Automatic annotation (TrEMBL):
Pfam families: Abhydrolase_6. It comes from the Bacteria. Residues 31-285 form the AB hydrolase-1 domain. GO terms for cellular component: membrane. This is Alpha/beta hydrolase.
Amino acid sequence: MSAPVHPGLRVRTSDGVELHVAEYGEGPLTVVLLHGWTLDHRLWQSQIAALKDRARVLAVDLRGHGRSGSSQLSDTNLFRLADDIHAVVTQCVPEGRVVLAGHSLGGMAMLEFAHRYPEVFERQVAGVALVSTTAEGHTHLSYGLAPWLGKVVRELETRGAALLALGGPLRVHRAVMPALLPAVRWLVFGDRVESETLRLTIAMISCASLGSIGGFRPSVGKMNRLDALSLLARVPVRVLVGNRDRLTPVKCTEAIVAALPHARLQVFDSCGHMLPLECPDAVTEALGDLVDEANG
């Protein structure tokens, strides 16, 4: 990935957490990239390389992830992430137009941002990409298993997350991540994955704090922002999902597309939850088309 314009912008949020924001390129349109749960801005490395010559790109490390600061457990939720997006937009793009692209947790946070700050959203957002995400929390989460078994696993996973959250800013899981590689590969990837991509994913998860890995789980599970979809009706929308996604399956797109009939839905064959890494060229093309349409 090419070097950013600056070593990293620092954005101070409403509760004092400092966010790391990598800035690339320049132009009247700004693309804000929001990564998924336990990841960081490196998820978008291919898209950054392609888009930085067409627009200004801001790749955000969400709180508790990557190079951003961590927060107290009580502030590890989607509401705070919405406030964080507001801080990034108002401090880094005070006047210009914005295209928002959110993967997984980033997409959920984007919808929460639209709900909490509709005036800013309507004034500045010129396009939206929802990548491997949902507006309905864990309603459709079954991990690709039989419904009854998926429900059991979800309950166990939720309880485990509560224990992890007690670790706060610690990142002691780095030591065991290599042993978890097969589980990560099964959970978030589709039929094929390159070893380099898998290593990058493990590296990103290793940089997320235990408080973030476990702390966001309750907020994500209860999330329901179908009401916020109406705010997206006036802008071009891309909805991308893999047909092997075990975390936000294709069924998650049904309510989104029903509320936004103008949205362009793309389902990627044999791909899982990590579309920006699994099919980088196709995701880049979709975001490039969105940038062109927003500019048009």
